[in-house]
Amino acid sequence: MDTLYFGVDIGGTATKFGAFTAEGVKLSQWEIPTDTADQGARILPAVASEIRRYAENDLSRVAGAGVGIPGPVLRNGRVERCVNLHWSDFNPARELSALLGGVPCFAGNDANMAAMGEYWQGGGRGAHSVILITLGTGVGSGIILDGKVVYGAHGLGGEVGHTLCDPDEPLPCNCGRIGCLDQIASATGIVRRAERMLAACDTPSALRSLERITARDVFDAAKAGDALAAQVADICMDFLAKSLSMLSCVIDPELFIIGGGVSKAGAYLIDLVTRHYNEYATLSEQKARIVLAELGNDAGIYGTAKLAIDSTR
Question: Can you give the pTM of this predicted structure?
Fold first, then answer.
């Protein structure tokens, strides 16, 4: 029987699982609801139970498991605080290993793990250095250099969404600061920008007929030639491109991979960001390419499996 590795992506609502061979072949994937009751005390026992079930309770077949956590994870696997799971001062890798009879377990931030997944089996295949940017409710990100996750000294490596890019933003970010990229290039930020611009002018727009605007509505209207929607998309992606150009001066990746729900705008979004990025990234004629993510919501299970495979070799 195959030696098994497990990639686990723990979210506030659902926990996703992938079973992999040592060569990285995905054998199966599934998910269960995440039970955050009792301060998250039930989460890891449920994860261990699922791994045991798949392995038919033969833990000698399980070579390792990686876990993605929705919050900062230190290099040693410790989580200082994870609000969505109600964890604090906790080492999930150590706890899961104990529940699995000593099976080697490893943990990483979910965005970093998604970046590793895209680097390994998705849009970053063949590259040595990539930065994944996920545009969803917020702006997530992860940095992979020479096949290694950039954790940083305090587990904050890759928190691109909380870099300052618009000091004129009037509202505070969830982190408490003003003008984070998260407030502008996320789905939430795109909708907020559209609502502000609609309120500030009388320009005709298909968006005015919608009871509740989404980021998808903005990009769909922009693609259809709606001038105001196109302006909203242009402004928000311009800020993203500026941030990417600054990252290029620090990290100099081969690829920027754009994922998350907003990335479903596809080539229109990539072309827009690339055009602005090329205007700002002027230090070298050879520029990082900007591409779409390929693994979608499965990136995390691929990345955590890769973490387990690499860490046990």
Answer: 0.89
